[in-house]
Amino acid sequence: MTEQVTLTPAAERVLEVVEKLFYDNGIHAVGVDMIAAEAGVTKKTLYDRFGSKDAIVRLYLQRRDARWREHVTAVVERPGRLGPKRRILLMFDALESWMAAENPRGCAFVNALAELPDPAHPAREAIDDEKRWVLDYFRTLVRDAGVRNPHKLAASLFLLYDGAIVSASYGVLPDAVSHARDAAAQLLDSAL
């Protein structure tokens, strides 16, 4: 897992600006000059604090991942006696609410992967960590539900989940998450 860095309030503000710039415009379309201008700091300050644009990209993705995980777990782990199937399907509810509020351009991690194909890029670990966490969370939920072949079912749910994100971002199937949730329910019914 990527290491989490404690940031000053000023650095947090820079990353708030960076998150909007990178997500809205793409990583390669945003230069250090644009970041400095939008954040109201000098390029020297950016380099002194963050070291490089690659480090800023890595922190942007780590920060978004932390917010994403917090959102998902808040939805799935909310108080109440929910059955195991419902908890798994709540993953799709979490995705739907996140996408409505945060994701008009699709998954930030899929978008970043498209721009950063080099596996040695410093931000690739953050991309991999986010995807691995979603798969592992499905594995945990499926295992807790006591299904047969938990790894196979978790992989299928993960593919539905990630596929729904990408499909919804095309705009061709705006209710992709709803369809994925329905397909997940059918898979769960056959596995439970």
Automatic annotation (TrEMBL):
Residues 8-68 form the HTH tetR-type domain. Residues 31-50 bind DNA. One of its GO terms (molecular function) is DNA binding. Keywords: DNA-binding, Transcription, Transcription regulation. The keyword Transport does not apply. PROSITE patterns: HTH_TETR_2. This is TetR family transcriptional regulator. It comes from Prauserella rugosa.
